[in-house]
Predict the 3D structure of the following.
Amino acid sequence: MAPSPSEERRLTMPNGDTVAIGPLAPAEHDALFLLFAAVVDSGDGYPHAPPLTRAVFDATWVGPVTLAVVARLDGDVVGAYYLRPNFPGRAAHIANAGYVVAAARRRRGIGRLLVEDSLRRAPLLGFDAIQFNLVFASNPARSLYEDLGWREIGRLPDAVDGEEAVIYWRRVG
Amino acid sequence: MAPSPSEERRLTMPNGDTVAIGPLAPAEHDALFLLFAAVVDSGDGYPHAPPLTRAVFDATWVGPVTLAVVARLDGDVVGAYYLRPNFPGRAAHIANAGYVVAAARRRRGIGRLLVEDSLRRAPLLGFDAIQFNLVFASNPARSLYEDLGWREIGRLPDAVDGEEAVIYWRRVG
């Protein structure tokens, strides 16, 4: 049987816990809203302005999204990512992705599992590359992205509060 | 009186004709749809897949747009551009813009007038930079953008039909 982009995968974290990674369910929208609102409040990694509104949440995680995936630990949403076309039409083969992990669940390898999972599902959805348009130069996730094969293709000056942002790209599949 | 981002400006083209540049009126949506559909059909400059649908037109020129501006020659829409935030929230000070000139009206300086007009209106709308996310490496408009102060900040491999794209940015205002 061919792999499906919507399968649920059960993976073992470095500490031995099992995390379930699969498509965001409608019943989990509220939990992901709260998780993402806390990330936006902290200013970590995303340029979105706090407080997060439901309209901005939907415009990020629901409306334009090809697939949103969550990581569940004991049934709780502890992290997520989305994949969407980064451009229309003939350039829609390039995905954009965004990842979040709840602050209290970081440094356990959940982020790496989510990024690796996106590399697996993106080609099943028809994407052949994943581009990040705006990664804060100070974002600690940069070393993970570079470890996992993204390369810097550009630099955007004065992106947020005078800080430069990095543009990343990698082929997938 | 402070300049307004929605003023109509009457400008003289290099050949002596007068072009009127001002906000897109609802009654001009059909004319701009036809103009942009022809550009999309030709594959010139935009990654959009032909045939252009009204939904894709609206998603490019209406929905997310801060301001759409047209150039009128004897009352006909002969070119246009849009300005929109290129990112949400704290990075929304960076605009994205796209320009079109009807094929039969090119090589008369209309494109340059539109790009210059966008540099004038963008800061009036609160933008402090304009970024182009995907300019085909073969796009002849690149020399105009570079003349008018954009600088290359990145390169996107294999953007459309294997062709590389250039990412441009310039400060405005």
